[in-house]
# Entry
Amino acid sequence: MTATGGTAALVSPAADATARARWRSLVLTDPVARLVRNAAHTGIDDSAYDLRQLALAAIDLVVGSMGFARETTVDEVVDTLTGLAARMRPAPEWAQEWQDVAQAVLKGLLNDAHEQRRFTYHFAEMGPDGTRWEHYSFRLLSLRDTEFGPVLVASDQAITLYLHGLDVDLEDADRALAHVLQRQLEDQRFDAAARTAAQAERTSVGLAATLAEMLDATRRDVGSTDWATDLPERLARARRHVEVRIEEDDRLLEHVQGGLDAEASPEVRAVSGRIVDLVGRAKQVHLDLERRLVGARDVFLAAHVRQRIARRSRLRMFTAGPDLLVPALALPAADAAAVTDAFAGRALGVTVPRLVRFDDVLDALWAVPRVAEPVPVDAEDVVVPDVTEDPQGYPDASSPRRGRRCNAWTRARRACPSCSQASRSRKWPSCWCSRRCGRSRPTRPTGTRRPARRRACWPAG
Amino acid sequence: MTASVAADLTDVRAAAELITFGLARRARPVEGSDYRALLDRYRTELRFKDVVDTMAEGLGLEVLGTPRAGIVLVPEPGGPFATRMSDLRPMDQDERLVFGLVLVGIAAYAYPNEVDFDDPETKLVDVLRIDEFLRAAIAALPPPDLDGRARAAADVYADLPSFVPTQTGRRARGCTLRAVEEVCGWLVEQGAAREAPTLGPDTYHLTDRFRLLVADSAGNAALEALRTVRAAAQQEEESG
# Structure
């Protein structure tokens, strides 16, 4: 810091101008760093699993499915991450851990440790009048309830992270990548062009996902997006962008296709084929995006009619914790029961009554009782004991099994402290030795345990 | 109704079908299904929406909303489709109170702010965390100002042990963790939650159905009951 007050720059005018954007780029990756830190507390070895890569893979999966007919479900993401974790630590003894790792990563991205609230950071804006703290909150992934079950949705921040971890405008990035790609093709730098085409495709998917999220938000609550100024501008810009990009995609495809037909080198043909696939997929994404843009206005109008013009029947002016739970807990039990009953009667939803019909009951009573089918039992391999060996006798000094005896067994067989005779019983007898020396039941020596079962002392084999 | 409007019989039939889908809690409006077509009609045709709403009203139901997972219906208390906790399992008064507190606790845990009722994000709840949340809320309460014999609802919950194991190591009846587990099980049966075994044992997703039921019906009904109880207590104080 070079300046302490006035209008002087903190570091330098150029650095200050981009400080906020760079700070945001920095905090975007913090949730991932945090989940790696927290993984240690859940017993996951960070050195055995690349948790950062797993987190990026989860975001990739979610962003890649957004904007299509069916989003990625939680189970699908967990399954994929489990598979990746298995590849990172493939030994079968770690199989139990793979799913735990997948769960830890997904829960970290959902901020499950803080009840799935948004990740919140504070930016210190240091001006001439002092320091002002600015909150920056965001989610990476969130859960939605759909007809397919719970699905995952990525936020704008997650989409940015998915692309390249920088705070950039997606339309600009998409256009810039198209120019770079064209330039690389003209220079015949095909490997670089293939990488750029892949990046361009990812950018297009990110753009499509952002728009899909925006339209979903409008369908949900038309007030959540600014349809007066911001959204119409963004839609118009997106339409122009898609229009240009579809034309450029066609031109690029023709260009590469032309080279593909003329070029004889197999390496160049292979790379060109890959570029054609990538550009073809990007074009498909742009065409999907165009279809969605065409219907965007209708989505807004329909949502407006349904949500704003329609009669608003309910107000949600309460918070369940302070307004309901805490007062109910403080009430006398009988009064609180009236409150909780009223709540439960509604919160449990509908129940369709089942009517008992006389005929059905009669049939059920007359029905032949069900007989349990016998379950075939797998016969275990029985270990036949060695009958020649006296289980009570002293083992041969040369027997290789001698060393396997446990201490408890040895202790049980040691001499009676009263008459110095060895015990012949496997259990603690009333008299320790077999000669009945007449002593009463001895107390077990301090620090010894009951002798273990013989099976434990003489393992099979 | 001040003016009668003739309804097309085919619309009436379609409305009845939509309500049937709403009552069958496991039906999903997947793309191309009849349920989805009817749901789309409800969302877009005001006339059809009126027919459905009116028919539901006659059956003792109310349409709360149409999120992606399907139409959400709430029963009128005492109506043919109403659910009472005692229908789900026989229980004494204290148990009923504990189960009711758990249900309110789940809502308070999942939707801590009023804006959360508008957020369609599915919430994850965990049996252990719900119990911890309720016990933390009880611990934060000031000492109750009740006459000698009355027992506060918080005491009923706090007096129960958190965990009592059975011989097989599962949760036995009579502990609060078992109560939370049972309530989560009911929510799953009622279509208000789904099990999430992939995210850990005892983890559940709360569905949009639960959010709407709490936000638009149960919360207001409970607040009304709370107001009534307080008014009665105040009247008693004034007269006594």
